Here is the input.
Amino acid sequence: MSLSKADRRPRGDLTRVLVIDDEPDIRELIDLTLSRMGLAAECVGSVAAARQALDGEPFQLCLTDMRLPDGDGLEIVRYIAERHAQTPVAVITAFGSAENAVAALKAGAFDYLAKPVGLEQLRALVKSALRLPEGAAEENPLQSLIGDSPSMQQVRATIEKLARSQAPIYISGESGSGKELAARLIHLRSARSGGPFVPVNCGAIPENLMESEFFGYRKGAFTGADGDREGFFQAANGGTLFLDEVADLPLAMQVKLLRAIQEKRVRKVGSVAEEAVDVRIICATHRNLRDCVDKGAFRQDLYYRLNVIELRMPPLRERLEDIPPLVEAILHRLFGESPPQLSPGALKALEFYPFPGNVRELENILERATALCADAHIEAEDLRLEPDEMGGESIGRGSETLDDYLNRLERQAILEALQKTEGNRTAAARLLGVTFRSMRYRLERLGIE
Ligand SMILES: Nc1ncnc2c1ncn2[C@@H]1O[C@H](COP(=O)(O)OP(=O)(O)OP(=O)(O)O)[C@@H](O)[C@H]1O
Here is the structure.
């Protein structure tokens, strides 16, 4: 193991960084930069030496080259993920090898640097890695994500894991299922929490303004540009940029976005100079992004860059046990200490409702019901769960197949019948004109509890 000057420094409480690179010049450069930041670097040149060092005293950060004489950086990323999960690890990739960076992020790397290593970017990466919160904070913002169903517990655990990385994340899920809330929580639990969280609804920006909205513009770039302006990327510098409804970006803008993400640099409209930006991208859409790629509406290269890790927000109808705590939390939020109460019948009616608009729809239903109810007691009728609301629009959504569409209709009809009969399956079967056996089969097939 070759130790650098930094290792010979008395350690005391110094923050320790393990650097793995077999090129002496790069080691020297990183070592010098880290020691100027007041950190103690231990430099080694192989996978074997890295393992040995990691199993010794703990490190607060690890930086590894991808190509090493006895293996590759991915092995180190995996080793750390398995045995030293508290240590963030970043990889240094050869210029233009984006797939390597993506593979490292998927394996659990916190971030990556492309060669030639820019000192500014190296410093930004080190600073954000060292800001990572240790373990569970006293006031955990994840508590604002209500629901203890197994799928929500899984979502919470995944958010916690994703917060420790800089990898781009794609959040999928139906409208109103909490995609933006999840993105905010990832940001709040991450090393970037002190920086801005900038949400952007990609579908709401006129096409001719997109470039200047995303990257900013210089004075005089076009008529009306009477001063310099920052774009979303600059506004999110040091923080997180949340691209909602990313599938709505026109193809021309997708190319520019890909470039900005890959290079970590942007150029204002009307400027010749590029500026470095340090932004983590989280994107979301209620559409199926893979289908958009297949149809040629979304670039495959951008898809792979954004969809490094996917987080799926489950629809509310797949986690009925979350409805009572959500109702309680929403009413509490709307009305404070003495919120109106839901009758048992009203709660049951909610449990039979398919919630095409998910938690946002539940919020709207409760708000409307409290305006309609008498004396702070909400009955099932106050909820106004009209049959025509049971399932939203009538024709297939986005990429829905005919089978999905028919199953959705069948599901709606059954849930509606069950709602009317207060959960009595025999009566619901009669109402729908099918036998009890057929009803039982359908309930099983559609996964209705
Ligand atoms: N698990 C949850 N606990 C508490 N509130 C939630 C939860 N999920 C969603 N919400 C609330 O529901 C509303 C809609 O959530 P959000 O905006 O995150 O959904 P979305 O999936 O981004 O919607 P869209 O697809 O329409 O952009 C917000 O008010 C949010 O706070």
Remarks:
- The domain at 316-392 is CATH 1.10.8.60 (Helicase, Ruva Protein; domain 3).
